[in-house]
Amino acid sequence: MIFSKPILFSAVQPSGNLTLGNYIGTMRHWSKMQNNYECLYCIADLHALTIQENKIDLKKSVLDTLSFYLACGVDPNKSIIFIQSHVYQHSQLNWILNCFSQFSELLRMTQFKIKRKIESDCTKKINAALFNYPILMAADILLYQTNFVPVGRDQKQHVELTRNIAHRFNSLYGNIFTLPKPLITQYGSKIMSLLEPHKKMSKSDVNKNNVIFLLDDISSVALKIQHALTDSEMPSKIYYDISKKPGISNLLEILSAITNKDINILLKELEGIMYAEFKKIVVDCLSKFLSKLQKSYNDYRHDESYLKKIAYEGAIKSQLRSQKTLKDIHDKLGLIPFF
Ligand code: TYM
What we know:
By secondary structure, the protein is mainly α. 54% of the residues lie in helices and 6% in strands. The strands form two sheets. Strands 1-2-3 form a three-stranded parallel β-sheet. α4 (89-98) crosses α7 (128-142). The protein is globular. Bound molecules: ligand 1. The site of ligand 1 has 25 residues, from β1, α1 and α7. Its EC number is 6.1.1.2. It comes from Buchnera aphidicola str. Ak (Acyrthosiphon kondoi). Homodimer. Belongs to the class-I aminoacyl-tRNA synthetase family. InterPro entries: aa-tRNA-synth_I_CS, aa-tRNA-synth_Ic, Rossmann-like_a/b/a_fold, Trp-tRNA-ligase, Trp-tRNA-ligase_bac-type, Trp-tRNA_synthetase.
């Protein structure tokens, strides 16, 4: 298949319940991107193996994630949806790219530094895969000659590393890889924790009150938003300023994303209201948004044979596409063809 539109690749790691951060940072854009790009949406189950401590039910989590892709409007007739471990080419290219990656550049990855701290605080053990994680991500992206990668801000550095690895390989072997660009929106690319708005909202947060999960029931969402940290400015005023008002700015980014309204338009509408009233508006909008999403999610989630069919068809299509890139690489590296 020859792709006539630019190629777009994105993925989520099925390592637990998806959060509002995952949705706002990347998944909310996927449906409309299908019109302008050839899209591949992957469920990065091999990446999820790096987290071994809080044992997740991976089979369940993969199908949950796939159901959310569909509920967010990804259409299997327009996009390729697949599970990473079904396409062996990812693991193959991962090894090859390991040979073109530098220890020192991996040490600089902010996510590794954060995860290393969490893991070593808990277990004193850090597996090698946690360190090599961004190389598998580079393999995911580069196998498909990807032009664009829509991600949250936390993944920007990994996409930049991917470009560096691709560039290094290309300068040795010719133009094998397309250099991908991250697509990161100005607002919503880093949704923060509700009680600690200086840190990213994350699936793995031990304090569940910091996080809105996409499957949270509406009453607990209301409580979480009511307790979200704001500030003590007197008289209270709603405006966007990440450093002076991180809590309010975070709620504004959330409201803007789920209502599809520009922050400046929202600010006009919210002029003169108190924080409690503002939070009530956020709760109302979030409740409507989540109820609709959860209904659609449940419809897909109950039909496992349909989900498996989509994953199967997606894997066949991705295998076909990725084989071509991998064959070119094997040739360049001097690996003897199997037949
Ligand atoms: P993961 O599963 O941690 O996150 C999936 C996507 O959600 C974004 N995200 C956020 N965006 C805004 N605010 C937040 N609080 C927030 N939390 C998460 C992430 O930036 C990401 O876009 N390594 C990746 C998965 C992956 C991948 C890839 C992504 C594997 N291969 C290839 C792109 C391309 C990860 O763990 O994402």
